[in-house]
Amino acid sequence: MESLHHLLNGFTVATTFDNLLYCLVGAVVGTVVGVLPGLGPIAGIALLIPATFGLNPTSAIIMLAGIYYGAMYGGSTTSILLNVPGETASVITCIDGYQMAQKGRAGPALAICAIGSFIAGTLGIFGLVFLAPPLAEAALAFGPPEYFSLMVFGFIVLSNVTGGSLIKSLMMAVAGLIIGTIGLDPVTGDARFTFGS
Known about the structure:
Elements: H1 2-14, H2 17-35, H3 41-48, H4 57-82, H5 93-102, H6 106-140, H7 144-161, H8 166-180, E1 183-184, E2 191-192
């Protein structure tokens, strides 16, 4: 019950006029960022962080979230109109959206994309709110055996997805793992596979 109280308190803070205004500004700026090919949501946020230095932390995070969601939607505009995805998540939109635009139905394609983005974003946020606490508890219960099992499962899935020889796929996965361990260990700082250099 206490978590519901905190959730309602968060909604109260988020729905103040100032925070809603910052969210709107962030969504508009994010849509412009998403339209620019090659500049994705993460790069847009990184470039626009200095714009939030004068804000209080709550408003700054809300504005950055608006930039992210706006950029995720904005990439579909160029996918539909120009067949050039504004960011990587909009690549699949080129297939159907551009075909609709070629047939003179760009308006309905943009509307479908906007409505779909709103519904998916809303469902994603509600899913995060309700599923994050149990998933966090499950993740905290993981120990070394569970992490090892998860890595082995990832290797097996990777080797089956490649579609070629199972042995070759596993060998390439292990080779990639060995190459990835070259350098400093992130936990202990020890040098691995550097041959004394």
